[in-house]
Automatic annotation (TrEMBL):
GO terms for molecular function: transferase activity. One of its GO terms (biological process) is translation. Keywords: Protein biosynthesis, Transferase. This is Formyl transferase C-terminal domain-containing protein. It comes from Desulfomarina profundi. Signal peptide: none annotated. Pfam families: Formyl_trans_C (PF02911). It comes from the Bacteria. The lineage of its organism: Bacteria, Pseudomonadati, Thermodesulfobacteriota, Desulfobulbia, Desulfobulbales. Residues 6-51 form the Formyl transferase C-terminal domain. Transmembrane segments: none annotated.
Length: 68
């Protein structure tokens, strides 16, 4: 999937029940299912019920509240 964006790589471009659209530099990645650490795989729709995310957030790979 391709979409022009001025946002940083790792930025959430869209967040909805159909998936998470993430900027990957020149391309984008649509994630439809996710598996949080220690949990079963689930739809993004189910994940968003317990983990609110908004477009514009930059994914870092860190757990929330953890500083390096």
């Amino acid at each position: 999937m391709y979409r022009d964006s001025d946002s940083s790589p790792g930025s959430l471009l869209e967040v909805n029940k159909n998936g998470l659209l993430i900027n990957c530099g020149k391309n984008t990645l649509l994630i439809r299912e996710i598996q949080p650490e220690g949990k079963k795989r689930m739809s993004v729709e189910a994940f968003l019920c317990g983990t609110p995310l908004k477009a514009g957030v930059v994914l870092s790979g860190q757990k929330p509240g953890k500083e390096q």
